[in-house]
Write a structure and sequence with these properties.
The chain has 239 residues and is mostly helical. It contains 10 helices and 7 strands.
């Protein structure tokens, strides 16, 4: 319930984690309580602590409407763009499948990198639309991303307003930091973050779904036989 707390900083928490690993009855009781709260255990270790995820209709489920209020997201299309931003954060943080399997791996990413990935996704959607000889306004039956990418690509990258794309990315990454998934580090004016073990567990367990696949299918993220890599056409921005 305190997402930024880790066992290394709290002796009682560390003792409970060790007990969870060695006492089967205690682990079973923990699982029962967690289930009763509408939660599931994704992992529990000295590095991560107890990592939980909410089930559908759980009191602890963070609905998109709740996220929108906290991140000051104003309309449906902008909510979809924030979803794409979160997928891009996960892809930049863990660019290779092996990174998710390596418990010692720590990802490092910046607002600028994530913005570049989302913009590249928009560019590829633009090419897809042109190839299909679509009208200026895509039809209603087009995939959700194809109906919303222009909202992102038409906005300025930087600027003093909250409407810039980097401002949107900053909101999303600050939210992840509040949830104990990212930690802000020095450099680049505070726009650089590193991943936490909790975030690695979350991405490993929850991001292998249709939404992540949709981003992969754009070709911005290439996954192969275990040595996949993240790339953009503008290779000077990302390796």
């Amino acid at each position: 319930m305190r997402p930024r707390l880790v066992p290394a900083r709290d002796r009682s928490y560390a003792d409970l984690v060790r007990r969870h690993a060695t006492d089967e009855m205690f682990a079973a009781a923990t699982a029962a309580v967690v289930s009763g709260l509408g939660l599931v255990i994704l992992g529990c270790s000295d590095r991560t602590g107890l990592v939980l995820a909410a089930t559908d209709e759980s009191l602890f489920e963070l609905k998109m409407e709740d996220y929108s209020r906290r991140a000051v997201v104003r309309d449906r299309r902008e909510r979809v763009l924030h979803g794409l931003i979160h997928l891009a954060v996960a892809a930049v943080a863990f660019p290779r499948p092996a990174d998710l399997a390596d418990d010692t791996y720590v990802g490092r990413l910046s607002v600028e990198q994530v913005d570049a990935v989302v913009r590249e996704s928009c560019r590829m959607l633009d090419e897809r639309a042109a190839a299909a000889e679509e009208n200026l306004d895509p039809p209603e039956e087009a995939p959700e991303l194809e109906r919303t990418w222009r909202v992102y690509s038409r906005r300025t990258e930087v600027g003093g307003t909250r409407d810039s794309t980097r401002a949107m990315v900053t909101k999303a990454m600050k939210f992840l930091a509040e949830q104990g998934f990212l930690i802000q580090v020095g450099g680049d004016g505070g726009s650089t973050y590193r991943t936490t073990p909790r975030y690695q567990v979350q991405v490993r367990e929850l991001a292998a779904g249709a939404a992540f696949d949709e981003l992969l299918q754009l070709g911005v993220v290439v996954v192969t036989d275990g040595t996949g890599s993240l790339h953009t056409i503008r290779g000077d921005l990302l390796g």
